[in-house]
Amino acid sequence: VFEPLSHKTIEWVGGLDGHVQLVDQTLLPGEYRVMTCEDLDTLWEAIRNLRVRGAPAIGVATAYGVVLGTRQASTPQSFFEKLHSACEYLAECRPTAVNLFWALDRMRRVAEANRDARVDDLKAAMLKAAQAIRDEDAATCRAIGAAGESLIRDGDAVLTHCNAGGLATAEYGTALAVMYAAHERGRRFRVYADETRPLLQGARLTAWELAQAGVPVTVICDNMAGFLMKQGKVNLVITGADRIARNGDTANKIGTYSLAVLAKAHGVPFFVAAPLSTIDMKLSDGSGIPIEERSRDEVSKGFGRVTVPDGVACYNPAFDVTPADLIAGIVTEKGLIRPVTEARLREIFDNGSCKANKNG
Ligand code: MRU
């Protein structure tokens, strides 16, 4: 099996008394360090500060957070109290990626299904459920790759934004899964990675991953994409997603919307790749997606250098919403949704295995 990354982005090590290990993504590409989380507070901080990030990886981390938050319980009653407070705490961590809330729902439902069990069995059920979420995500990403690889033809140049790779998932990625799968099948193409201001997930993480996998990659600043398209240098755009409303409106890293508008203006097809766990069927359109706002410092002194005068305001929304009509197709583990309409989303969602975000 092709392994684009030799590490595990996030995993549980050992039994119920074990711990979470994750690659600290804030340090890449300069330093590769694996950190250990033995308690919920450490894991919460890791999610909040983007040590682990990307919607599916956030879902996996959240599930492990529930395990860490409940494993000290000594009675079923204290288990359910700890479960409640761990879920409330984790729900405050990051608002946009629906995978966080999807994972919480799923963990809660497993606990409810075991309501009459002994406390040790409840705790074991939590670890088993979290491991299943990780393992399913890995399999889902492979299926997304297989469903989307034919979008990339020999000689293409593909533009992507942020990081929707192995680092953003249990392994293999979503948007990058499509690229890895095409690469695996011997297709030759180039990737342009938007650097992705302000936190540079494209330059630091996407370029790092693709280079390791032997996929030719060129980093560009976000504001260069239009110039490249104008020159005919981009054949298609593929990004990930943090939350997709049931009409197909898609939240992803800030700057994705601008890219979709540019793609439309230049006749370049714009695709999204995401698991069904990223589709929020409760939301009729993108206007209901909560957009995370992050600190001024990320803009004014990212990576240590002051780049904005003291006292000058900065605005730092971390995500934007791309309307469905700008999206040529959504690649999921169940196939390609094309055209992007509520009816097509419903169809694939109802035939899929993921029901957690379903309305009613
Ligand atoms: O703030 P981040 O780095 O968590 O944002 C990540 C993205 O926007 C990704 O594109 C998205 O989560 C998809 S990851 C497969």
The biggest sheet, with number of strands, parallel, antiparallel or mixed sense and barrel status, is:
7 strands, mixed
Our estimate of the beta-strand percent is 15-25%
Task: Using the CA coordinates, give the radius of gyration.
Answer: 20 Å
Secondary-structure element sequence? Answer: EEEHHHHHEHEHEHEEEHEEHEEEH
Quaternary form: single chain
Distance between the termini: 39 Å
Task: Characterise the protein shown here.
The chain is α/β, with parallel strands linked by helices. The chain has helices at 40-48, 55-70, 76-91, 98-113, 119-148, 175-184, 201-213, 225-230, 256-265, 297-300, 342-351; strands at residues 10-13, 19-23, 34-37, 157-160, 190-194, 217-220, 236-239, 243-245, 250-253, 270-273, 279-280, 319-322, 329-332, 335-337. The strands form three sheets. It has a seven-stranded mixed beta sheet with strand order 6-5-4-7-10-13-14, sandwiched between helices. It has a four-stranded mixed beta sheet with strand order 11-8-9-12, covered by helices on one side. The radius of gyration is 20 Å and the shape is globular. Mean pLDDT is 95; it is low at 353-360. The structure holds 5-S-methyl-1-O-phosphono-5-thio-D-ribulose. The site of 5-S-methyl-1-O-phosphono-5-thio-D-ribulose has 20 residues, from α2 and β9.
